[in-house]
Automatic annotation (TrEMBL):
Gene this chain is encoded by: LOC115938367
Protein name: Polycomb protein SCMH1-like isoform X1
Molecular function terms from GO: chromatin binding; histone binding
Keyword Cell cycle: no
A GO biological-process term: negative regulation of DNA-templated transcription
Lineage summary: Eukaryota, Metazoa, Chordata, Craniata, Vertebrata
């Protein structure tokens, strides 16, 4: 008789019988695991990863535009703070390392500087900095012929919009 164990019903994976690993000694086999848990493997056609990962030509401290992971309708300025293979560790300018996040180099959620403006958007401060007094964003909106230029000034963030810029 086949007994199926629900992983959701267990308090932890360690509560499952040792035979879930395929044998009492813990030797894992997919066939036994799938049978014992009444599971269905994801078919190969579901996976879209490239067999050769994209090359990572980014360097630490490079700037780019990225979707705010806490507010995906906002595009923010981000800094590359780490690299691992085809992954980038990003920090939104104005947030701390507790809010770092990872993206693949070919993610649609990252774009080169200027992409947001080119497509009629406006850069936003990260959601985390809107509620933090210690993080201040200085965003200078420069007036040019098209009233679209946006200059990010400095590394501290608090929203300051200027209707004109006088040198």
């Amino acid at each position: 008789m086949l007994v199926c164990y629900s992983v959701l019903a267990c308090e932890s994976l360690w509560d499952l019988p040792c035979t879930i690993m395929g044998s009492p000694l813990g030797h894992f086999t997919w066939d036994k695991y799938l049978k014992e848990t009444c599971s269905v493997p994801a078919p190969v056609h579901c996976f879209k990863q490239s067999y050769t990962p994209p090359s990572n030509e980014f360097k630490i401290s490079m700037k780019l535009e990225a979707q705010d992971p806490r507010n995906t309708t906002s595009t923010c300025i981000a800094t590359v703070v780490g690299l691992t293979g085809a992954r980038l560790r990003l920090r939104l300018d104005g947030s701390d390392n507790k809010n770092d996040f990872w993206r693949l180099v070919d993610s649609a959620e990252i774009q080169p500087i200027g992409n947001c403006e080119k497509n009629g958007g406006m850069l936003q401060p990260p959601l985390v900095s809107l509620n933090q007094d210690s993080n201040k964003i200085h965003i200078l909106q420069l007036v040019d012929m098209s009233f679209k230029s946006l200059l990010i000034y400095g590394f501290s963030f608090s929203l300051i919009f200027f209707s004109q810029f006088i040198c």
